[in-house]
Structure formats: C-alpha cells, structure tokens
C-alpha cells in the first residue's frame, strides 16, 4: 500500500517536473515574443512623440489610442522585468541525486509565479491585438500615414517672437551680459572668425539678449543677418542668409542685388555664391535657437574666415552645439543665468502693473513675491504669468486663488499654453529612454527635495 502511494507520488512529481520544464521553455519563448512586441511599440511611440511635436491638432481618438498603447508598453516592461528578476532568484543548478530531490520540491513553489507571468503575457498579447484592431477599425493608422506625408500648418503663438519687438527699456537684468557679448563681437584684437555661443534652458532670454546685442553692434560690420533656425532648419537656410546680407545696413543708399537664379540653386551653388559674396567682407550672423550639434558642419564652409573679425552668434539649449564649433573656429561660451530676485521682481512689476508705472501696490507685495518665486527667475515664465495677472481683477482674493492654482493654470489657461509648449520642447528633445525617467519626478510633490538614494 505504501509502495503504491510512493509510486503515485513519484509519478505525480515526475509529471510535475515535465510540466515545469515545458512551462519554462514555453515561458521563455513567450517572454522573447512579448519583448519583440515591446520594441516595436517603442519604435512606434518614438514616431508618435515626434509627430505630436509638429501636429497641434491631432484627434482625440488618436491621442487616446497612443495613450493605451503607451500604458500597455509599461505593463510589458514590468512583466519582462519580473521574469528577469525571477531568473536571478532561481538560477539553474547542477543535477545530482540530492539536487534532483530538491528540484522536485522547488518546482511546486516555482510553478505559481511562472503561471502568473505566463498568464500576464497572454493577457497582454490579447490587449495589444485588440488595440491593433481598433487602430484599423477607426482608421488611426491611415491618419498616421497621412500625417507623415502631408505637411501640417501648426497654429500656435510663440511668445519668443515678442522678444524681437521688446524695447530696450522693457528688458531687465541683461545689462552686464549685453556688455560682455558686445565686447566679444567688437574685439579688434581677435581677427579670427569667432563663434559666440549663448546657451541656456528655454525661457531664460537667449533670443532677447542676442537681438539686443545684434541691434547695438550690427552697423560695425559690412553685412549682417539674424536667422531663426529652430529644431528642423530647412534647406533654404543659406538662401535666407544671402538675402538678408544683400538687404544691407539700415540707412544705406541702396540694397545690393540678390544673385540671379538663387531660387534654383542647390546647396553647393549656394555655398559657392555665399563664399564669393563674403570675400573680404567683415560679417556678423546670429543663428537663433539651434538644436542640432551638426549645424556647424552644415554652414562652416559657406561662412569663410578671412581673419577680418567675422562673428557668428549661436543661441541654443544644447552646450554640445557650441562644443562642435571648436573643431574649426575660436569659440566664446556664455551661459545664461536666472534673474536674481530683485531683478525678477522689477521685471514682474513692469509687466503686471503697467498702469501703476511698474510700482507694486503695498497689499500685493508679499503675494507678488510668492508668485515670482514660482517663476524661479525664468523671464519667459515671469512675462507669461504677469501677463495673465494683468488681465485679472486686482484684488488679493483673485491673485491668491491664481497663486494656489498656478500649476493647473499652466495646463489649462490659454494665456499660459504657449509657455508650456516652449518648455516642452526641451522634454521632446530628450532621448526616448530618459522621457519616462523624467516623468517619474512627477510622482513627487512640487518643490520637494529628492534624495538620490531613493531613485537610483
């Protein structure tokens, strides 16, 4: 009887071992399959993120579909991580008599987590399949193809454009920076072609500073131009430089004629034409908002160095852009700073209390300081927030409510939507694997100190 019972147990355990081995092989294959699915989803999401940067009016249906796909990708990552952790906790061991007995006992414990992982993978595959079917059913894939091939006019107001039209009296806190850059531009001791990089996060006033300096020194050069570059500069960049050079200086008797056939020229012809035009001329060019570190390689051969004091100013959020120029040019680096508290207050009051000649009423002093602190010395944030407040009733209750809800106002108020879009460009420029890392910080309360040991 006992022998029969033991034999029955052995048969059961043998069956269990066989099932465990089959499940392990099947599970490994399932994990590999879902991992490949994850890689495909991540590639799609990268394209979706890029598309979202250029298409403001993406339909709500497409946004919801992409959101569902992104959430599934996060759950797939979790399952793959759980499987990797499981393998680390249960390494394969050498087989022996005792090991075989232990293996039989362990398999009972290990089958449950393996079944759970396998079940999760099956459910995720079903969910991915359903999301894919929805994309076909509602034409989301067709929308994606159309968007990829059809240029879309993006209609949104860029508050940086206002920096071009700011009067000098309206600008606060850049006097010393302006003097520094002007000195570099007009330095007669430096005859070599020189690149001046103005680097800093979005909203610190790079465009404003560059424009103010440009206006004050441009007449010291034989020809000059100011070009907005942005993230995806077009092939007509060199053409724009030539046209702006030919317009001549303000007050000049006449403009120079634009070279014939310029509209039909290719890049090589543009480069040759520009080199001929700049021969023996001292020029100054400002390239505003450069993102790509390879930008210098695209223009350096067109902008010759005749050792007559030519100057090129590049504004960028990316220090690597400036470093790339050092290959073939002398480079000055200027890093933008946040406005100090007293300058931030002066700037805020100029914008929020225009009717009061920039003087903050006594009852608003403490509240204004709290709002200014939220802006962290970023001029663009100060301009947008002060502009919003200037449209509100000047009562302490109204301003207090806005101060408390400023974070939600950034998301929902049309007066602040453009600043959110500007600052989100830096997020969009992050490598894909760092975007999720950055978003994890959203779990922490505002203004919370975060210990490295908690997140690393």
Automatic annotation (TrEMBL):
<dbReference type="Pfam" id="PF18052">
    <property type="entry name" value="Rx_N"/>
</dbReference>
<dbReference type="InterPro" id="IPR002182">
    <property type="entry name" value="NB-ARC"/>
</dbReference>
<feature type="domain" description="NB-ARC">
    <location>
        <begin position="175"/>
        <end position="355"/>
    </location>
</feature>
<keyword id="KW-0677">Repeat</keyword>
<keyword id="KW-0547">Nucleotide-binding</keyword>
<dbReference type="InterPro" id="IPR041118">
    <property type="entry name" value="Rx_N"/>
</dbReference>
<dbReference type="InterPro" id="IPR042197">
    <property type="entry name" value="Apaf_helical"/>
</dbReference>
<dbReference type="GO" id="GO:0006952">
    <property type="term" value="P:defense response"/>
</dbReference>
<dbReference type="InterPro" id="IPR036388">
    <property type="entry name" value="WH-like_DNA-bd_sf"/>
</dbReference>
<dbReference type="InterPro" id="IPR027417">
    <property type="entry name" value="P-loop_NTPase"/>
</dbReference>
<keyword id="KW-0611">Plant defense</keyword>
<feature type="domain" description="Disease resistance N-terminal">
    <location>
        <begin position="5"/>
        <end position="94"/>
    </location>
</feature>
<dbReference type="GO" id="GO:0043531">
    <property type="term" value="F:ADP binding"/>
</dbReference>
<protein>
    <recommendedName>
        <fullName>NBS-containing resistance-like protein</fullName>
    </recommendedName>
</protein>
<dbReference type="InterPro" id="IPR038005">
    <property type="entry name" value="RX-like_CC"/>
</dbReference>
<dbReference type="Pfam" id="PF00931">
    <property type="entry name" value="NB-ARC"/>
</dbReference>
């Amino acid at each position: 009887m006992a022998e029969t019972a033991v034999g029955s147990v052995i048969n059961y355990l043998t069956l269990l071992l066989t099932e465990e081995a089959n499940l392990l092989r099947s599970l490994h294959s399932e994990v590999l399959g879902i991992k490949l699915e994850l890689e495909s989803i991540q590639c799609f999401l990268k394209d979706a993120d890029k598309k979202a940067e250029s298409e403001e009016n993406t339909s709500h249906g497409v946004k919801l579909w992409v959101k569902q796909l992104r959430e599934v990708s996060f759950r797939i990552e979790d399952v793959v991580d759980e499987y990797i952790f499981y393998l680390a906790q249960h390494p394969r061991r050498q087989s022996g008599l005792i090991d075989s007995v232990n293996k039989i006992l362990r398999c009972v414990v290990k089958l449950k987590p393996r079944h759970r992982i396998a079940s999760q993978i099956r459910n995720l595959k079903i969910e991915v399949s359903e999301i894919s079917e929805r994309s076909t059913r509602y034409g989301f894939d067709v929308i994606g193809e159309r968007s990829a091939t059809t240029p879309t006019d993006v209609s949104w107001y860029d508050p940086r454009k206002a920096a071009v039209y700011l009067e000098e009296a309206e600008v606060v806190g850049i006097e010393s920076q302006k003097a520094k850059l002007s000195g570099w531009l007009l330095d007669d001791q430096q005859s070599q072609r020189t690149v001046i990089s103005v680097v800093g996060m979005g909203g610190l006033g790079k465009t404003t500073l560059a424009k103010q300096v440009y206006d004050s020194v441009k007449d010291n050069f034989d020809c000059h131009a100011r070009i907005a570059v942005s993230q995806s500069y077009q092939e007509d960049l060199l053409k724009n430089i030539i046209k702006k050079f030919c317009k001549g200086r303000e007050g000049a008797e006449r403009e120079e004629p634009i070279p014939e056939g310029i509209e039909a020229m290719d890049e090589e012809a543009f480069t040759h034409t520009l080199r001929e035009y700049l021969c023996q001329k001292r020029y100054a060019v400002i390239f505003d908002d450069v993102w790509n570190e390879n930008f210098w390689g695209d223009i350096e051969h067109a902008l010759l160095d005749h050792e007559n004091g030519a100057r090129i100013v590049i504004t960028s959020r990316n220090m690597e852009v400036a470093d790339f120029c050092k290959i073939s040019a002398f480079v000055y680096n200027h890093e933008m700073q946040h406005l100090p508290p007293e300058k931030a207050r002066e700037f805020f009051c100029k914008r929020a209390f225009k009717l009061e000649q920039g003087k903050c009423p006594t009852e608003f002093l403490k509240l204004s300081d709290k709002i200014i602190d939220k802006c962290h010395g970023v001029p663009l944030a100060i301009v947008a927030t002060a502009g919003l407040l200037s449209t509100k009733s000047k009562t302490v209750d109204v301003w207090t409510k806005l101060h408390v809800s400023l974070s939600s106002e950034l998301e929902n108020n049309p007066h602040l939507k453009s600043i959110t879009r500007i600052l989100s460009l830096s997020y969009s420029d992050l490598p894909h694997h760092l975007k999720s890392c950055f978003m994890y910080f959203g779990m922490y309360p505002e203004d919370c100190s975060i210990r490295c040991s908690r997140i690393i």
